[in-house]
Amino acid sequence: MQTKKIKECAVTIILPTLNEEDTINALATELLKQNYYIIVSDDGSIDNTKKIVERLAVQNKNIIFFDHTIHNEKGIAKSIIDATKFAKTEKIIVMDADFQHPTEKISNLIFALDNVELAVCCRIKNENWGIIRELISFGGNFIAHIVFFLRNTADCSDSVSGFFGFRKSILQKIDEKRIIGNGFKILIDILKQLPRNTPIIQIPYIFINRKNGNSKFNISQIFLFLRSLFS
């Protein structure tokens, strides 16, 4: 019964990485125990991320390392889209590799994709972010809501979430030329190309503080976000 259930809920998890040697082994090992397929789509790590994943791949065929910089220009958004071309399943989950996204919510996304093409884990609380980061996140979502409303496109309560799932069929509705490759909010690039009546299941969760490594967020990401939103 357990095997049948996993087979019916088969999913590929894409983990975009950039210098995640502190967390990738623990997270990938945890996910592999659930019999998920995993694609680590790397955006040019200079630490031991690649070595760690390749070592895991020797032990388990369900995980592969995709060096995006060999095939294309740097950019987390484009690296995720390119990684989907290697996915063996219809259902795909995108999540960070730093344990800020709770793995227990993956099953919610999987089952949501039985009924819709897009499901998003939306933050209802950020764990001790600080007022500046909170304001930036609120401002980003607020601007996105206005733009999506004016353009009559799809939207959700946390349009800058990095934790979501989709069916590969939705990619047929996406023009890759409109994806800002070096941006890091791929969900924005998807939502802006879908009609407003697109059904989206939203799953609430608490965003956890990074335990190891360094955040990739910086001021340049704000400009990339705006460029992506208005393209």
Q: What features would you describe in this structure?
A:
The chain has helices at residues 2-8, 24-32, 49-59, 68-71, 76-84, 106-112, 131-151, 186-191, 219-230; strands at 12-17, 37-42, 63-67, 91-94, 118-126, 164-167, 200-207. It has 231 residues and is of the alpha/beta class. It has one domain (9-230): Spore Coat Polysaccharide Biosynthesis Protein SpsA, Chain A. Strands 3-2-1-4-6-5-7 form a seven-stranded mixed sheet, with helices on both faces. The N and C termini lie far apart (47 Å).
Q: Which short descriptors sum up this protein?
A:
7 strands, Spore Coat Polysaccharide Biosynthesis Protein SpsA, Chain A, alpha/beta, 231 residues, disordered N terminus, 9 helices
